[in-house]
Amino acid sequence: MNKLSYRYPDTLVIIFAREPVAGQVKTRLIPALGEEAATNLYKQLLDYAINNVITSDLSPVNIAITPESNANYFSQMPCSSYFEISLQSGHDLGARMYNALALALEHYSKAILIGTDCPFLSHNDLQQAIAALDNNDMVFSPANDGGYVLVGAKAVVNPKIFESIDWGTAKVMTQTRTILLKHNVSWQELSAQNDIDIEDDLRYLLIHNKFQDFIKNK
To answer: Tell me, what DSSP letter sits at residue 185?
Structure first.
């Protein structure tokens, strides 16, 4: 799609992703689902996240993949003409998110970053996130497990916001709020979401039309 046909051509939506290789994705779900089913679930979540953002027609899209992922997997997707591919860089999740946002903001006025673990982010949620940056430095969509499933920024991002965070724990959003206040960063929080990380999270997929069959077949 031509950049001018997007509703927000000055915003880049980034999706953090990895190639769905068995044993390397959804590892915390392998005990419950088995390696093959956990991989298949990740692939479905990945495909849904990418297509959900593309069909929103809101903004240009970038798929930021892990260094070990094969870029050819993504470039051969049927929808590959609608996104660009980049490599994540950084020593931990915080550094990778900061680097991705900072790089995007060299070319765009706003940047929104999501992962593939939350299939509940709607087109409206994405639009709200973009709009929130009109009056705030950053935007977050918290996860009910204590992390967040979306982060967005405009202008210059303070790297401190992504440092000294206990990633993968229930402390992430609380620690982030403390750092935001300390550095006088304004932010808006959207509605909290459920992400799919552990066995107990699978129940949330029962309310999602795209994943009901997957869960019922387990």
So the answer is: -
Given a contact cutoff of 8 angstroms between Cβ atoms, the answer to whether 80 and 160 are in contact is no
The side-by-side arrangement of strands in the sheet containing 148-154 is 83-87, 61-65, 11-17, 110-114, 148-154, 138-142, 187-189
Q: What stretch of H or E contains 40?
A: helix 35-56
Q: How far is CA 183 from CA 49, 110, 142, 161, in A?
A: 32, 20, 20, 8
Name all domains of the chain by residue range, CATH numbers in brackets: 3-216 (3.90.550.10)
Whole-angstrom distance, CA of residue 144 vs CA of residue 192: 6
Check: CB of residue 27 under 8 Å from CB of residue 125: no
Terminal Cα-to-Cα distance of the chain (whole angstroms) = 38
pLDDT in tens, 8-42: 999 999 999 999 999 999 999 999 999 999 999 99
Amino acid (1-letter code) at residue 124: N
**The predicted structure's pLDDT at residue 154:** 96
d(CA 40, CA 100): 27
